[in-house]
Specification:
By secondary structure, the protein is of the alpha/beta class. The protein contains 12 helices and 14 strands. Helix 3 runs parallel beside helix 4. The longest helix has 98 residues. The chain is rod-shaped, with a radius of gyration of 49 Å.
């Protein structure tokens, strides 16, 4: 038998439930009436059919057993006690020998009162009640209604149980899917951490290699330049015009290589430690750069406008390198016979307006610095390439350089948790935009004036 909270459930209903859709409708109440007299069978059928029950009739104990072999979803059995061959008690005993039939209650019907022993025998066999002939129709309907109602309640309990079972299975499935997903995520996270650590180690190795290789290469280059100068000074007559030209080319190529090594060293050293950050007056850095580039600026007849730039928490030497590279680029890629005009300005922006800013820093303040020129510019489709290391948009014959300067700028800015981008139009000019976070400590009274006037 099946139990839920102490209630016996009907296996036939459970079988039907598991193969059919859940329904809240009441089930069909089937009643098996067993009596050897046809008139008794029809009499009980006529009384009970009024209440909508499905009546199945058997005129002997053997026929009842045959019916129960094929159909066992009965709510109740009304069993006559006095029948030939198999009486009601014997038939009940055979019915309850079968496990799947033990749930069906039996009401015995008898015409004689054989005393307490007879009644006890019926109850001992599994009977639940007695009816005495002649049958009172109202009493019969009342007693059958009790068991029909009990059957319906058991059915509803079973339905609820199955709903709970299905909900529990669904929950278990969701929990299992979540567990599997979490395990997969954990595995991917572990792999990601391993990959990050591996890439970090590779980057560190590459930076060390670049530093060592560049450092070791400088000494032989210095000797080449030194002895090249000596050859040019002492033996230029012996070398002749063609020999001096070759020597000059060699020294010039060596100088380019020395500049390349110098830039590689700068690139490999472009790391940022938060302890190295300090509140820095960017305007002072820009003034120093302009002073150092005075000769080039004068030769180009360049005009440089510098607005008010706020104090920022940065590594001064690295940020100086960024602006120096950008200003040198603006001077280098200027148009012939057109004085370069370089404008440097700044503005405060909210993190929500900064593309790629971490959502956790959305409400932080950033400083956006613009370095604009009126030079030769380039097609905007190459904007992503200009920051690639060793990438050049022009040949050495047109413009000197190593192709590392802007890569260094990008690395330094990103190490400061910022970003750099570029917009350019051929023959109109180029604007580099540097975006850096404004540290609270650096956002002091020294920036009050900048806050009032915004960007210049």
């Amino acid at each position: 038998m099946l139990f839920v909270s102490g209630t016996i459930l009907y296996p036939a209903l459970l079988m039907k439930f598991t193969t059919e859709n859940i329904s809240t409708d009441k089930p069909q109440v089937n009643i098996l009436v067993v009596d050897d007299k046809e008139e008794n069978l029809f009499s009980m059928e006529a009384i009970l059919e009024k209440d909508g029950y499905n009546i199945v009739k058997a005129n002997s104990g053997k026929e009842a057993l045959k019916i129960l072999l094929k159909q066992y979803d009965f709510s109740l059995i009304l069993m006559d006690v006095q029948m030939p061959e198999l009486n009601g008690f014997e038939t009940a005993g055979l019915i309850y020998e079968r496990e799947r039939l033990k749930h069906i209650p039996i009401i015995f019907i008898t015409a004689n009162d054989h005393g307490a022993d007879s009644l006890f025998k019926g109850y001992r066999l599994g009977g639940v009640d007695y009816l005495f002939k002649p049958i009172d129709p109202d009493l019969l309907r009342a007693k059958v209604a009790v068991f029909a109602d009990l059957y319906n309640k058991k059915y509803q309990l079973m339905m609820q149980e199955q709903k709970l079972i299905m909900a529990n299975k669904k929950l278990e499935q969701e929990v299992e899917e979540k567990r599997i997903s979490e395990e997969k995520i954990q595995v991917l996270n572990n792999q990601l951490v391993e990959n990050i650590d591996h890439l970090k180690a590779i980057n560190e190795d590459l930076e060390r290699f670049a530093y060592v290789a560049s450092h070791d290469l400088q000494e032989p280059l210095r000797k080449i330049i030194l002895f090249g100068d000596r050859l040019s000074g002492k033996y230029s007559d012996a070398l002749g015009a063609e020999g001096v030209d070759y020597l000059n080319r060699m020294v010039k190529a060596t100088g380019r290589m020395q500049e390349l090594i110098k830039n590689i060293l700068s690139f490999s050293r472009a790391t940022t430690n938060i302890d190295d950050l300090e509140e820095t007056d960017i305007n002072v850095i820009l003034d120093n750069i302009i002073s150092d580039l005075e000769v080039s600026i004068s030769q180009k007849k360049a005009i440089i406008h510098i607005g008010r730039i706020p104090h920022l928490n940065v590594i001064p030497s690295q940020i100086r390198q960024v602006f120096q590279n950008l200003i040198i680029n603006a001077l280098k890629f200027s148009k012939e016979d057109v004085p370069p005009v370089i404008t440097i300005s700044a503005e405060y922006v909210n993190g929500l307006d900064v593309e790629g800013a971490d959502t956790t820093n959305a409400n932080k303040t950033y400083c956006r610095i613009f370095v604009k020129d009126n030079g030769i510019g380039f097609e905007q489709k190459y904007a992503g390439q200009v920051f690639l290391i060793f990438k050049r948009l022009h040949s050495h014959d047109q413009f000197e350089g190593t192709g590392i300067g802007l890569s260094i700028c990008k690395k330094i800015v990103e190490k400061h948790n910022g970003s750099i981008s570029v917009e350019s139009i051929p023959n109109v000019g180029t604007t580099f935009t540097i975006t850096l976070p404004v540290n609270i400590k650096a956002d002091s009274s020294k920036n009050a004036e900048f806050k009032k006037i915004g960007s210049l």
